[in-house]
Amino acid sequence: MATEGEKVQVKLLGATLSPFVVRVRIALALKGIDYEFIQEHFMHPKSELLVKSNPVHKKIPVLIHNGKPVCESMIIVQYIEEAWGNKAPNLMPEDPYNRANARFWAAFVDDKLFPCLRGVFTGQGEQLQKAVEDSVTNFLLIEEALGTNHCFAGKAYFGGDQIGLIDIALGGLSAFIKGLEKATDSVLIDPEKMPLLSAWMDRFFKSDGVKEVMPDVAKQAEFISTRRASMISPPTSN
What we know:
By secondary structure, the protein is an alpha+beta fold. The chain has 2 domains: 4-83, 3-Layer(aba) Sandwich (Glutaredoxin); 96-227, Glutathione S-transferase Yfyf (Class Pi), Chain A, domain 2, CATH 1.20.1050. 55% of the residues lie in helices and 7% in strands. It has helices spanning 4-9, 19-31, 48-53, 73-83, 96-122, 125-148, 165-171, 174-184, 195-205, 217-232, and strands spanning 10-14, 36-39, 62-65, 68-71. A hairpin with a 2-residue loop joins strand 3 (62-65) and strand 4 (68-71). One of its GO terms (cellular component) is cytoplasm. Residues 95-232 form the GST C-terminal domain. Its EC number is 2.5.1.18.
């Protein structure tokens, strides 16, 4: 468990519905690190602390450890593993090849998959349909890897018997993905076409350290629907 010292020296700037913040909260929970959660609001001006802590992007999440800020969700997750490497579980494989493989698929989630999901979030009509198709194509690649990649095929998680870097990268988006499906009446992860990925997501959702910080899917869907509606609403006349 975290010490009293850790409680006052670790802060997280974030929002409960942000999938990127969820990643960091999962990593902190798995490591048993206590922290102060400072809520930022999507529709409010950015706080002075956020702008000061992340002057380049001015985005959440930001982890502040001993007064020093660390930005970008997957960089933060890897920082947590390195800064608290003496705490189980290990979020990164020890073997160099397996570690490189984990980084590859974590990057795939951010560089290939998430832009498609963002397209689902913002898209309408044909653009929405194209974004859904592109998302499904990338999910199918992950499904194939779950069955063939020797680093994690046949195991409970991408990290093996315990949650690891890829699980956090993809799993942090789980409620967002499910919320997108509800809000857009789309099927992104079809249990029949992607049985391995679907089973993994259900398993991940119920895992200790995950279920406690995972946003409620109904609230996530409501938030997504509201934001989508605001993007297509005509401007109000004076």
